[in-house]
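User: What would this chain look like folded?
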Amino acid sequence: MESIKEKAQYWLSDFFDKDTQNQVRDLIENDEQQLTESFYKDLEFGTGGLRGIMGAGTNRMNKYTVGMATQGLCNYLLEQFAGEQIKCAIAYDSRNNSEYFAKITASVFSANNIKVFLFDKLRPTPELSFTIRYLGCNAGIVITASHNPKEYNGYKVYWQDGGQIIAPHDKKIIEEVRKIKDFTTIKFDNELKNVEIIGKEIDEAYINALSGICLNPEIIKNTPLKIIFTPLHGSTVDLVPMALKKIGFHDINIVEKQAIPDGNFPTVKSPNPEEPEAFDEAIKKAGEANADIVMGTDPDGDRLGIVTKNSAGEYILLNGNQTAAIMVYYLLDQWEKKSMLTGKEYIVKTIVTTELLSEISDYYKVKCYDVLTGFKYIAALIEKNYGNMKFVGGGEESYGFLAGDFVRDKDAVMSCMLIAEIAAWAKNQKKTLYDILIDIYIKFGYYLEGLKSITKTGKAGSEEIQSMMKKFRDEPPESIAGISIALIHDFEKGQTIDKISDLRYEIILPKSNVLQYDLLDGTKITIRPSGTEPKIKFYISVHDRIDSVEEFYEMTKTLETKINIIMNEVSNYDQIKKTKT
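Assistant: Here's the prediction, encoded as structure tokens.
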């Protein structure tokens, strides 16, 4: 078996550029640990593409691993669409080397005689999804690592429906990538002869399509709304203001320090709209301007964080479940008021997203589908279009949402437009988004969620995460926080175990390394390794009924305490009493 040093020595051959050779030589001579991390395995082309730390080596994002992935994809496309002029769109975000990797990708496609539409500068991921269908492409690539640390980049693959690849294409593309054993078989075209640069005309078509989600243009026109927006050094710096102005918002104030695209993300610890610290600059600006709402998008523009005022006038960051609940409620409520609900509509959520969305959809007699974590499963459901039903909207707890079906991925540009409209609608009633959220809790039930992530990096960390999942699967607890487990949903085995009756039921979803415990009181706990980060995640959902604003504040303390107890137990899994299934 080839040793790590032997694998590294190969990268010193003349085929590799001088910069790569120098990086590898430095690792061999000075950093054995990083040498191991860079070469102990090949960077895996997963079910969505590539994601990894940038640098030289087989387990890193670089010209050659990106080239290998693209060559494998080309081989699959040439087989699937033999005899056709194959077309592919490519977009990239503000991360370090994103433009470089986009051009490497375009070079390989071009060398394989595949027509490439390459954006002239950075664009948000959802615009790439839109572009694939708009230009009739067979596939698409976006170079991004979303909200990962600055050391990372990635490569996401989309199919001709505009959604990320799913079975069977994902596994078949992986097979083609794995067939490539020799980097010298990768074709490069430095002249980019089959590449067409695209830009403004696609922006206009995209924004025009997005504006169709607007339900109350008169309210927007008659309700001044002061908006603070931060792109967090990412790709939405132009598109979000353009989209908001298109539907009638004009008082849009951008956080200047964060308006410069920069892959080092210098003003934030993490460019992640889930993190309150990412909004420090924006909230400061909002306070000075007495703004109604703050919006922040992640680097590739598919996820949106919202900050609104509570009853005390303090700026509060809503979580992804809360934002999704507000948007689903508004869409269904307005569709009903405008007689647009016909009984053929549906929404979609992931299995780790709040059950509050199900409660809301049940009230409006709208079907709610559950899918695995990942927006590609929502896109796949839209594409299948069961019974000619109409997709209203769908979301996930990690700050992703989509309304309408012309984009097939979560869309922060669209979400900015929708949430701004809802904020204007609320203000027209002398309310904030926070007030609307409490109204939802009183009407449908107070659902509160928590997330605990444990990071385990490197080879050892990956093995530890797998060990933790095995223990939770093979030796599940009898109870958590003193509450018995009623159901165990094992999505990898494809079965639900009823602990009360000892019966087993089939899960009609694709297999996935996810476990879900339903407790007797309705609490839901989900455990899964992240598909994009070196983390294991614990999702906790608790709920109860409230009848007033006063009860909301009291119940918040009760539910938060319960979540913290559960988090402490599940994250110290060796201390939980286990029982064999």
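The chain has three domains: 41-198, 207-444, 446-575. If you want, I can go into more detail on any region.
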